Amino acid sequence: MATNVNHLYAARAVAGFTGGGLLRIVPLYIGEIAESNVRGKLGAYFPLGMNFGIFLMYVLGTYLDYHTISFVMVPFVLLYAALMLFLPDTPQFLIKKHRDEKALKSLKFYRNCNEKDSQNIDMIKKELESLKINVLNHHKTEVKLKDFTEKASIRGLLIGVFLMAIMPFSGNMTILSYTADIFDSSGSSLSANESSMIIGCIQFIGIYIASLFVDKFGRKILMSISCLGSGLSLLLIASYSYVTSIFEVPSSLSWIPIVSLSLTILLNSIGISSLPFMIVTELVPQKIRETSVTILMACMTLFVFTNLKVFPPLVEVIDLYGCMFIYAGFCIVGSIVTIFIMPETKGKNLFQNHES
């Protein structure tokens, strides 16, 4: 219902507040309700859902006007809010509040427990007892500053900051925000709507691929492939853009920017765009997890803002190819950090400190 830019500022502030809350809460929520053997897959569904929304906006934006799109999305928001009312709190949260009976019911719900199967009931009760020991041990004292100075905490936070930084500085969010401009500057003949829908669809496919293989191959392998592959693809598009700024490139090579950008988005999506939220919740020690995730999400929004704000004037100074070379550098550095420093968190208990 906005009629001027101030209304948009207000709406964006509210959306940022609630959306930021979801970015913090959903990975924690999924991490707490999921069993370790499917936690990666379920964690990947979060960015998968986000990017389905992005793709849907690209499609609706092609055929509907601005205000109509907003009204179309309202029922989805209301449906989401209504459905969440039927889900119980996580067992860990209920244990912290000393609501053991509700915690047992919650665990039965999230494990799809068959009440008639006594063996199944016994396993659920044993899991609950194990959860109680771990949760109460980690929450019997308040979180203090010294908890953040322990070796596992420092390592987890530093890797977490790196993961939050590599997401925007890998070029992915810039490409999504300036899709039409980048395609045009790189020599593509596709229209703004066509290029946006192609990129949105490719990203959705990439994250879906990640959801299929993250629990099979692990987080480290997918992140390494994603960083290195994105870096090489960005080098290709940067080189092509640089050559076209100096020489007349034959029209027979016009497929290069489309393929390289599409490949960048695909490779980015299988790791960089889909896994950091999940890895952070698995990597940071349990006692400081909630506070750490809040800090890291705040860092990510700051990095995203900086990246999107700096990109347009930076293009004026060093051109598109210069920016793409920088993003490629970030990705290649990211692959080195992922391969040699970041630990594998696949299948690990959320109460482990991941020091090995």
UniProtKB/TrEMBL annotation:
<dbReference type="InterPro" id="IPR005828">
    <property type="entry name" value="MFS_sugar_transport-like"/>
</dbReference>
<dbReference type="GO" id="GO:0022857">
    <property type="term" value="F:transmembrane transporter activity"/>
</dbReference>
<dbReference type="InterPro" id="IPR050549">
    <property type="entry name" value="MFS_Trehalose_Transporter"/>
</dbReference>
<feature type="transmembrane region" description="Helical">
    <location>
        <begin position="324"/>
        <end position="342"/>
    </location>
</feature>
<feature type="transmembrane region" description="Helical">
    <location>
        <begin position="221"/>
        <end position="243"/>
    </location>
</feature>
<keyword id="KW-0812">Transmembrane</keyword>
<keyword id="KW-0813">Transport</keyword>
<keyword id="KW-0472">Membrane</keyword>
<keyword id="KW-0762">Sugar transport</keyword>
<keyword id="KW-1003">Cell membrane</keyword>
<feature type="transmembrane region" description="Helical">
    <location>
        <begin position="42"/>
        <end position="60"/>
    </location>
</feature>
<feature type="transmembrane region" description="Helical">
    <location>
        <begin position="154"/>
        <end position="175"/>
    </location>
</feature>
<feature type="transmembrane region" description="Helical">
    <location>
        <begin position="255"/>
        <end position="280"/>
    </location>
</feature>
<dbReference type="InterPro" id="IPR020846">
    <property type="entry name" value="MFS_dom"/>
</dbReference>
<keyword id="KW-1133">Transmembrane helix</keyword>
<feature type="domain" description="Major facilitator superfamily (MFS) profile">
    <location>
        <begin position="1"/>
        <end position="346"/>
    </location>
</feature>
<dbReference type="InterPro" id="IPR005829">
    <property type="entry name" value="Sugar_transporter_CS"/>
</dbReference>
<dbReference type="InterPro" id="IPR036259">
    <property type="entry name" value="MFS_trans_sf"/>
</dbReference>
<feature type="transmembrane region" description="Helical">
    <location>
        <begin position="195"/>
        <end position="214"/>
    </location>
</feature>
<feature type="transmembrane region" description="Helical">
    <location>
        <begin position="66"/>
        <end position="87"/>
    </location>
</feature>
<dbReference type="GO" id="GO:0005886">
    <property type="term" value="C:plasma membrane"/>
</dbReference>
<dbReference type="Pfam" id="PF00083">
    <property type="entry name" value="Sugar_tr"/>
</dbReference>
<protein>
    <recommendedName>
        <fullName>Major facilitator superfamily (MFS) profile domain-containing protein</fullName>
    </recommendedName>
</protein>
<feature type="transmembrane region" description="Helical">
    <location>
        <begin position="292"/>
        <end position="312"/>
    </location>
</feature>
<feature type="transmembrane region" description="Helical">
    <location>
        <begin position="12"/>
        <end position="30"/>
    </location>
</feature>
